[in-house]
């Protein structure tokens, strides 16, 4: 198909100093959880973006010196020449597809505790580091400043040798020494590097000049700057010093990459921000510089992209998450395949990879992070050599992805869903406050399946073991999902709590199907959250917005602690506070009467009680195994019925993230006729231990 001419503007080449980007699609620096520790995976990941049409593909932050050591995070590293081959592999993969390779140099200043190198962190002024480690950074003296400038220069030279076309200086996310020097909060120096605006800007200016000299005139220089820290006057603001910095340095770099700080403000989830949420802060930038500007805002709609270019807000459409959810986004626009774009849902499961120091995963794109170790391509799934038909039961994320993948492999696939809508848990969860975009997990897959003649889709088709045996389809996938427990069993209480039945208990599933009306209007409702991710707080929000008096009880020390990994924890807690939800932390369940709930302090065991007419336990889930167990009990009939394999997928095998269900469905689609060898590691590894003997003694 041809490209829609209204998107032509997105495919104009744009000059960035001495280099030219072939279009306006720009993958800004983003963490991958791979970095120096999984260099092959990293190279393959970035190469995939280039293949998918992103004209510029950037690394994640690259630590320039062992005093900038983010261990155990897996970032890029450029401490010495030994780091060059891994980075050269990245540029090679990017160049192979005609894109420009960018590297984001960073010294993390007081952001790091240098856990691995054990070197003293460096900062403009004496300061405790950002992590909870009992580590302080020391104030840099003039010799340290000279060292810092040299380290940046050395790193820039190395970056060029590794083949990068664009070298970034990073002053964003409150994670960089350059931003620390700029910040009044971090810099209370009395010399020419502190105090006045010009003084705080001095090091940045010097390092821009040094870098320019180091990279010469064949490589472009980019600056990534936090224009607003969303802290009001105690931080950088887009109306104050954010604007002053760009005005002062306007023509020095070849490109401005502008965003919000810190990372949780920059990468806001759909629960808290809409597409384009950074525009109010970054729209001034082009009025103070003639250099091209890139910014982000979770843009997945080509119409929005055209708008921001036409309105003169941005020259490049920057993307991290939209490029993770769909590395082929630019190509799909170019080929006129808009409906094929796998839109990011803004859930930040991707950031949880970096935050837990493992290769990233994505709810929408199950192939991310698997490009090298499993050889998975986001767009290509090999046709089955002799495809045998498959029956997929359950139309949630696991079943939908399994059916989609199978259909794409040329398999005749039947998808049966017992309910009257597609999407399973996604259909239910996307009706919760702030989670509407999660429906894209269903919509994209249904859209893809509807174009396949070899896929038959049936709603309102609850299948029994008899049905399955009668259909005689050789491969059967059971993706029947899971249900929330109501007996209190979870992380904290490992055995059922008989006393819960003394009062009214409403399961999260009832709230998911019926909304807040599942909970009687009278008296306070306690949401007991032992799940620790989003569900507890979203249900509390739903109930509070419906006017219920809500008490949120958790054994943890804060609301939704795992949502720190999705950069949401602060906003989640604040939202409940704003909704007047009473928050009780560090308490478990201790007993129950009709009107009262006993709580027990997890440290002292001391019990006390709160009013409670309804309890919503958000604890653990149990797989819906009814069909599986019924079929398993009749395994001796399978062969006669022509059934070769029966496989459980997604939540029906083990309840988990939506991302895990999609991954499970995808894995099945790729391997449904193969017998897994469970004694083998199911992916390639590049662990350091395997390199013993290859490093100098
Ligand atoms: P997952 O996350 O693993 O995809 P979900 O809970 O989202 O699981 O989806 C499971 C789907 O399976 C639900 O939509 C449910 O209605 C459907 N389902 C459950 N049992 C049957 C059955 N016996 N026949 C057909 N569909 C079923
Ligand atoms: Fe988007 Fe979620 Fe995928 Fe991240 S994990 S890219 S936020 S869909």
Automatic annotation (TrEMBL):
Coiled coil: none
Record keywords: Flavoprotein, FMN, Iron, Iron-sulfur, Metal-binding, Oxidoreductase
Gene3D superfamilies: Aldolase class I, FAD/NAD(P)-binding domain, NAD(P)-binding Rossmann-like Domain
SUPFAM superfamilies referenced in this protein's UniProt entry, alphabetically: FAD/NAD(P)-binding domain, FMN-linked oxidoreductases, Nucleotide-binding domain
Domain TMADH/DMDH/HD second alpha/beta: start-end pairs: 523-604
Domain NADH:flavin oxidoreductase/NADH oxidase N-terminal, residue spans: 10-339
Entry-linked PANTHER family: 2,4-DIENOYL-COA REDUCTASE (PTHR42917), 2,4-DIENOYL-COA REDUCTASE [(2E)-ENOYL-COA-PRODUCING] (PTHR42917:SF2)
Pfam families attached to this UniProt entry: NAD_binding_8, Oxidored_FMN, OYE-like_second_a-b
Cofactor(s) needed: FMN; [4Fe-4S] cluster
An example Gene Ontology molecular-function term: oxidoreductase activity
The keyword Lyase is assigned to this record: no
Family recorded in the similarity comment: In the N-terminal section; belongs to the NADH:flavin oxidoreductase/NADH oxidase family.
Origin superkingdom: Bacteria
Protein name as it appears in the record: NAD(P)-binding protein
InterPro entries: Aldolase_TIM, FAD/NAD-bd_sf, NADH:flavin_oxidoreductase, OxRdtase_FMN_N, TMADH/DMDH/HD_second_a-b, TMADH/DMDH_FMN-bd
């Amino acid at each position: 198909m041809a490209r829609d001419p209204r998107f032509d503007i997105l495919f104009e080449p744009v000059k960035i100093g001495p280099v030219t980007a072939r279009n306006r699609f720009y993958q800004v620096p983003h963490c991958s959880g791979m970095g120096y520790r999984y260099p092959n995976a990293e190279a393959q990941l970035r190469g995939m973006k280039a293949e998918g049409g992103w004209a510029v593909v950037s690394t994640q932050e690259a630590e320039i010196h062992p005093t900038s050591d983010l261990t155990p995070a897996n970032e890029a590293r450029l401490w010495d020449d030994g780091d060059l081959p891994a980075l050269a592999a990245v540029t090679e993969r990017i160049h192979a597809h005609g894109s420009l390779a960018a590297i984001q140099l960073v010294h993390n200043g007081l952001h790091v505790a240098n856990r691995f190198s054990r070197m003293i962190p460096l900062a403009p002024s004496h300061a405790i580091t950002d992590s909870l480690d009992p580590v302080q950074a020391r104030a840099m003296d003039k010799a340290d400043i000279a060292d810092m400038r040299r380290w940046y220069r050395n790193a820039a030279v190395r970056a060029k040798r590794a083949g990068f076309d664009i070298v970034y200086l990073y002053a964003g996310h409150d994670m960089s020494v350059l931003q620390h020097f700029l910040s009044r909060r971090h810099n209370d120096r009395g010399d020419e590097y502190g105090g006045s605006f010009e003084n705080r800007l001095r090091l940045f200016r010097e390092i821009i000049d040094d870098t320019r000299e180091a990279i010469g005139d064949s490589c472009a220089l980019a600056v990534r700057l936090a224009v607003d820290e969303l802290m009001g006057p105690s931080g950088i603001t887009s109306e104050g010093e954010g604007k002053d910095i760009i005005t002062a340095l306007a023509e020095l770099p070849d490109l401005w990459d502008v965003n919000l700080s810190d990372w949780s403000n920059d990468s806001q989830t759909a629960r808290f921000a809409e597409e384009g949420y950074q525009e109010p802060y970054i729209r001034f930038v082009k009025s103070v510089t003639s250099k091209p500007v890139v910014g982000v805002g979770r843009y997945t709609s080509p119409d929005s992209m055209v708008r921001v270019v036409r309105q003169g807000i941005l020259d490049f459409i920057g993307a991290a998450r939209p490029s993770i959810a769909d590395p082929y986004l630019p190509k799909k626009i170019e080929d006129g395949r808009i409906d094929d774009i796998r839109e990011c849902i803004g859930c930040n499961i991707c950031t949880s990879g970096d935050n837990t120091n493992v290769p990233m995963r994505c709810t929408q794109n199950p192939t991310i992070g698997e490009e090298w170790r499993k050889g998975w391509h986001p767009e290509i799934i090999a046709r089955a050599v002799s495809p045998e038909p498959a029956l997929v039961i359950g139309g949630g994320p696991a079943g939908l992805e399994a059916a989609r993948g199978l259909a794409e492999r040329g398999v005749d696939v039947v998808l049966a869903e017992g309910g009257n809508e597609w999407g399973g848990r996604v259909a239910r969860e996307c009706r919760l406050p702030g989670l509407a975009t999660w429906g894209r997990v269903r919509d994209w897959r249904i859209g893809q399946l509807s174009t396949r003649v070899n896929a038959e889709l049936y709603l309102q088709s609850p299948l029994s073991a008899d049905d399955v045996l009668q259909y005689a389809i050789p491969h059967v996938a059971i993706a029947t999902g899971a249900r929330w427990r109501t007996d209190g069993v979870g992380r904290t209480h490992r055995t059922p709590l008989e006393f819960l039945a003394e009062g009214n208990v409403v399961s999260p599933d009832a709230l998911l199907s019926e909304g807040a009306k599942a909970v009687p209007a009278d008296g306070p409702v306690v949401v007991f959250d032992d799940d620790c991710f989003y569900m507890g707080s979203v249900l509390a929000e739903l109930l509070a917005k419906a006017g219920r008096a809500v008490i949120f009880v958790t054994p943890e020390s804060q609301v939704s602690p795992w949502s720190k990994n999705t950069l949401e924890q602060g906003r989640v807690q604040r939202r409940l506070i704003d909704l007047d939800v009473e928050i009780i932390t560090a308490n478990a369940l201790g007993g129950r009467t009709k009107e009262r709930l006993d709580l027990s302090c997890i440290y002292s065991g001391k019990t006390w009680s709160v009013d409670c007419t309804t309890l919503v336990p958000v604890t653990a889930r149990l797989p819906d195994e009814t069909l599986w167990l019924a079929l398993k009990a009749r395994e001796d009939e399978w062969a006669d019925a022509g059934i070769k394999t029966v496989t459980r997928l997604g939540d029906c095998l083990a309840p988990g993230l939506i991302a895990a269900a999609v991954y499970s469905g995808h894995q099945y689609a790729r391997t449904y006729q193969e017998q897994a060898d469970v004694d083998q590691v199911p992916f390639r590894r590049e662990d350091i231990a395997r390199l013993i003997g290859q490093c100098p003694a």
